[in-house]
Amino acid sequence: MGKIKIAIFASGSGSNAEQITNYFSGHDLIEVVLILSNKPTAYVLERAAKLRVPSQVFDRPTFYQSENVLDSLRTHEVDYIVLAGFLWLVPQYLIEAYREKMINIHPALLPKYGGKGMYGDRVHRAVIADQETESGITIHLVDEVYDNGRILCQERVSLVADDTPDSLAEKIHELEYAYFPKAIESYLLEHKG
Description:
By secondary structure, this protein is of the alpha/beta class. It is about 40% helix and about 20% strand. The chain is built from 7 helices and 7 strands. The protein has a 7-stranded mixed sheet, with helices on one face. The protein starts with a strand and ends with a helix.
């Protein structure tokens, strides 16, 4: 049996995509075979080139009104999808094709601070405005609703009185880098075959 193949979807700088790709570089059982973005200027595409991972850009009509993205995933024999800072709602055809095989990370402790429009600094600002004592990351499966799928794991970090959205973002990134690749690995190896 060949390696389990992952495609990563990202909309921004792609630091998590790079962490995941490096984590699985040389892995016996899992490899990243494709990085996709909905933004032609996203830095994740430069990271993909440096990492020597094929990349692809798609626009809204391609994503929602055709199955070109699915065709590309099939061409690359992708087994699982990882959303690493990907901001669009995943269309039904893709959820059906990868049900229970699509993993997302959210920069807060779901079900709080999730849903449409809750991403990046918006999440951190809301957490601080509500004077929460902790935040964290939620790694979960993807379904038809934003930030709704079955939770695989959550990791927490404490907030201090002088935390800002930027300082909280740094804490969250540390959790993401430490736990996201391991959570992906654990889920894939548990469900392979």
